[in-house]
Amino acid sequence: MYSKQFILSFSFLLSLPIIFFIFIAPHVFPSPPTEPLIPISDEISDQTLFSSAAASTSLSHLSSGYPNPKLKIAFLFLTNSDLHFAPIWDRFFSSHPRSLYNVYVHADPFVNITRPQKGSVFANAFIANAKRTARASPTLISATRRLLATAFLDDPANTYFAVLSQYCVPLHSFSYVYTSLFESATFDKSDPDPSPRGVRVLFRTFIELISDEPRLWKRYNARGRYAMLPEVPFEKFRVGSQFFVMTRRHALLTIKDRVLWRKFKLPCYRSDACYPEEHYFPTLLNMKDPDGCTGYTLTQVNWTGTVKGHPYTYRPKEVVPELIKRLRRSSHSSSYLFARKFTPDCLKPLLAIADSVIFRD
Description:
By secondary structure, this protein is α/β, with parallel strands linked by helices. The protein has one domain: Spore Coat Polysaccharide Biosynthesis Protein SpsA, Chain A, CATH 3.90.550. It contains twelve helices and nine strands. The strands form three sheets. Strands 2-1-3-6 form a four-stranded mixed beta sheet. The protein has a three-stranded mixed beta sheet with strand order 4-9-8. Helix 10 links the parallel strand 8 and strand 9. Helix 4 crosses helix 7. It is globular and about 85 Å long. The protein starts with a helix and ends with a helix.
C-alpha cells in the first residue's frame, strides 16, 4: 500500500502541468494576435499613394500665416455603413461655394453601402482606393492616411483636414466652422500667441495628446512588453480621439511616416487594450511637433456610460435645442464644431432644428 503522503505528492506532481498552462503560461507566452495583419497588397497600394503625395511640391497654405479666401477645408468621412446624416451635411454645405471645401469618403468596400443620390455633396466623394476596415485595428489608421493622402494630392488648396465618422453631425453652420479655423484670433483659447490685431497668425492641429489616461501603460504593452521600443518610448506614447482637424503640414508629416507605422501595425495580444487608431496620430504628432498641436479635439463625445469602448449614443427623444447648446460648450475653444454619436433615427429631429438652432450661430 502506498502511503497517503506519497499519493498526495504524486497527485501534486501530476497537477503541475495544469497549473502551469492555466496560471503561468498566459503571462509568459502571449496569446494569438487579436486581429489580422494588414494584407501585403494593401500595403503596396498604400505606399504607392503615400509616395506620390509625399513627392508633391505643393506647400502648406498655412505657412503664410494670413487668411486667404481660397483656402479649403477637406472633410474626410470614415464609414462602414450608410451615410445616415448625409441630408443634414448637405444642408450644412448648401449655398456655400465649392471653392471653400472638398468632401472625401472612405467606405469599407466589403460592406453594402447605399450611395447618396446625385445632387448630394457625397455623390462623387467616395475614394476609389478604399480598403476593408475594422474597429480597434490598424486598418483604421490606414484608412485615415488614405483619406489624407487622397485629399492632399487632389487639391493643393486643402489646408485643414477634418476627420469625421458617419455618426458625426455639425454643431454650427459652415460659415462659423470656416471662420473659426481660418480667421478668428480668439477661437483657440490655448493659443500661446494670440494676435492683438484680431487676425489668426498661428495655425495648429486640433488633436488630443493625452498622457495621463489610467490604462495607458496597459495599452502601450498590448503588442508585447518591448514591442514599441526603441522607436516609441512609453513617455512619448499618447492617446486621443481619432476624429481631429489637422493642418496640411501635419497631414504631409503623417503621410510620409514609415517608422511609427511599422510599430503600430503590429498585431495586439490583448483585445481589451488594443485601439491603435486612438494612439498612432497623437503619438506621431507628440513626437514630431507637440507645439503645433492644441491638445484638444473639436468633436464632442460623451463618454458617460460607455459600453465596450463605445461612447454614449444619443436617441431621437434627446435631440432638442438644449442638447445642441450643451454639446457646443468647450473649455478649450469658443465651441465644439462637431459631435457624435447619434443613432440613425436622430436624423428627423436634427433636421427639424437645423435652421433654427444648429445653423443659427
